[in-house]
Amino acid sequence: MTPFFSIIVPVYNVEQYIRYCLDSVLEQTFNNFECILVDDGSPDDCPAICDEYVKKNSRFKVIHKENGGLSDARNAGIQVAIGDYIVLLDSDDLFFNKKALENLHKAIEETKADVVFNSNLALLSSETVTSSDEFKKEFICGDPIQFYLETINNRKIIFAGWLFTVQRNFLFNNDLFFKIGILHEDVPWIACLICAASKIGVNHNPFYMYRKDRSDSITTTVSPKSLFDAITIIEDMLSWLKTENGKAYICQMVYKDICIHMWKYIFCKLFFIVANHKQESIVLLKNLKSISYILLYRFSLRNVICYSLIHFSNGDTKKYLYSLKIVELFQKK
Question: With contact defined as beta carbons under 8 Å apart, do 200 and 141 qualify?
């Protein structure tokens, strides 16, 4: 029987967390799934742990490969998956409870959507769990424009690939794989996902538990590469907007908003590297200035202030730090 879900678990250097993750998979009341473990050349005991779970349960499969990064690992798992829907699960996270997949299956059956957004996210920090679903409860399924407007109205952060469950054929038909070699790989993938969908369903049931307290996580580390990759993502999106497909209203709305979001992210996070990476910071400031026109796509006082300050900084790191203080003061008002 074809599994309904293919759970893709990229594995790298998480030996102290991975058993919690895989045990949460084993505990699911809905068991029509396969779980593909992608050992991305992990240097610790993770490869042996993966083999252990494959022997323990026939629904587990493992791919041992050379290290290629998170995107490459996810893509490798998706390529061999045979389930109807793809579920992304990071190996240091876990499913919220035993009924996570059961409730997700019900949401998919109800909406018949190619893409389902799991809006109920729990944060695990120092063994303390906090859960929230800020998405409008009445919203069960709608077109991508309705969905995106709801995320904006509720200020719901959606830039995490594991929040989305996607039909496997939909991914292949739209060539929706993760770009290899960059950080923030979820951002362009989600943008493409939303724009390609005909309708998007929302699963309001508790589903995913994100481990927030990992100091070595790539999501908590700021580096020059992280910020240069964010610049690359913006530039790629701006190029896409000029294509015929990119002229669609949903693309113009989503891509422009995400470009602005990423620009502000770089502007603020630059603070953490400016002292130790001065030359890279100067280049980043000049890159931000060259694409600052995107801030004017969405008129707001904050966007105008950021636009003015990046031109005032003009590649000068001291002026940048002064500009950042102005932004911080404005945010407090």
Answer: yes
Residue of 248, 283, 88, 242 whose CA lies nearest to 177:
88
At residue 210, the 3 state secondary structure works out as: strand
157 touches 132 (CB < 8 A)? no
Amino acid at 37: L
What does the DSSP 8-state code read for residue 168?
H
Collapsed DSSP state (helix, strand, coil) of residue 88: strand
Q: Which domains are seen in the chain, by residue range?
A: 5-211 (3.90.550.10), 224-332 (no CATH)
The conformation of residue 315, written as its DSSP 8-state character, comes to: T
Containing 129, the helix (H) or strand (E) segment is strand 128-132
Stated pTM of the model = 0.91
Which structure tokens are listed for 91?
Answer: 């190996």
pLDDT per residue as tens, the chain (333 positions)? 799 999 999 999 999 999 999 999 999 999 999 999 999 999 999 999 999 999 999 999 999 999 999 999 999 999 999 999 999 999 999 999 999 999 999 999 999 999 999 988 888 876 677 777 778 888 899 999 999 988 876 666 678 999 999 999 999 999 999 999 999 999 999 999 999 999 999 999 999 999 876 555 555 578 999 999 999 999 999 999 998 888 889 999 999 999 999 999 999 999 999 999 999 999 999 999 999 999 999 888 889 999 999 999 999 999 999 898 888 776 655
Quote the CA–CA distance of 81 and 176 in Å, as a whole number: 14
Give the closest residue to 30 by CA, choosing from 138, 139, 105. 105
